[in-house]
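Entry 14. Structure prediction run on the chain below.
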Amino acid sequence: MNNPQPKEWLAKEYSQNYIADYKAFNFVDGEGVRNSLYVSGCLFACEGCFNKAVQNFRYGTPFTQELEDQIIADLSHDYVQGLTLLGGEPFLNTDVCLQVVNRVRNVFGTTKDIWSWTGYTFEELLLESEDKLELLNQVDILVDGRFELAKRDLKLQFRGSSNQRIIDVKQSLAQQKVVLWAKGHDGEQTFEQIKKADLI
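Output returned:
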């Protein structure tokens, strides 16, 4: 696993503006029905990464205006709660992510929430480059921190290892300390133990 110094990794030096995937109307990447944009490229190289191919900054296809338009169209449905950014590392793909989230805010204001996963910790992002700080300020909920295989826990909600946190970004910035998402709750049994019968 790599641990960067502040401003050591800059999106302008690494990002190729590639997208690994886009999944509309899913229920796994945050609260409610969401549209998820998976950006390509990550330098953290966490042991046990479940999406290793996406560490390549040229994996997938280039981001297009057509995809941006599709994301906005998909978000326009009343039942869609918001947009999720993940990958890959969104904060090393700030050109694409800022383009999308700025349009989301222009079109929908705060009626759609924005979630993001990142290998950075919240504290690290506060010391980062202006583009990363700009993106952080647009995010509502941040799942932060490297995935640590030794701390992997299948009972955790929306995260893979116990060091990771689900952070209310707006409250954290306002209070100048990490404030965890108020709706967060972990399971009493692992997701692997949930049977089909439980979902009917």
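Strands lie at 18-26, 33-39, 61-62, 80-86, 113-117, 141-144, 165-168.
Filed with the rest of this week's runs.
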